[in-house]
Amino acid sequence: MKRKHLLSNSLLGIILMCAGQLSFALNDCIVKFSVQEANNNISVINVIFIRGLFTTFFIFLYLNIIDKKNIFEILKIKSFHIRGLFEVMTALFFFTGLILMPVSNVYTLLMTNPFFVTIFAFIFLKEKVGIRRWFAVIVGFIGVIIVINPQNMNISYFFIFPILAAMFLTIRDVRTKGIVTKSNNFEIIFVTSVLMTIFSGIGSIFFEFSLTLNQLPQIMISSIFLSIAYLFSVMTIFYAPLSLSASARYSVVIFGIIFGYLILDEIPTYNMFFGALIIIFSGLFVIKRQKDLGKII
Hints:
- By secondary structure, the protein is mainly alpha-helical.
- It is built from 13 helices and no strands.
- It has one domain (9-269, 279-292).
- Helix content is 76%, strand content 0%.
């Protein structure tokens, strides 16, 4: 008699997505804390570069010592580089938008990603997307807007940058769906980390280096969370349909509120709590629907 799995692939994919967003939120808050300590917003490029060095080193150690993989053979895989370049393009447009626009506007537009993911998964991956899942995605997006409470959003041509970031993030996920297996997760994120480090290193050449040795421990911690986030973001695509896990991406807003308060002393507002409840509702709705259909245990 076969033993039942404790979790279905769909539910595991949702859990991994939430865990990945938790790790991304921790990483982002630590990066922001480091930039605030440096008292120089441009130092974010330096932080990303140093963080990339740590992240690449940690993944390299795992592949070399634990998995005993040939690093040079991994670096020859073209599809991994294409996927990594989409990650780099996402970061490029995201940080360009962040420099040119208010943060709340950038995150409002970036959270169009679940829309793009659901649409791309429906068109290109032929995933079945019911009206209830579309409803959950829309409700989650409404929750995001309530959380960030954008006021007097002045739309200019700058809005194209976070929109492009959301689109490249979507294309990255679609590309990942086509190449990920149960055994190549670390290989994929290793190539991505190498490319992110190279491009941020090139960017660091053009700006004054403003970090101190005292900031290295927190950047190293940030790199650990980034490594975990990279890994989970790839694994969730292997285990669950993109259109299903997309709504769980909104959970990063909730984690951002929590860690923003604990790490950055950012006091959450009432609209943040209300919006977070709506986001939680949209996520639980998707899980309940999948359970009713017998697709998760």
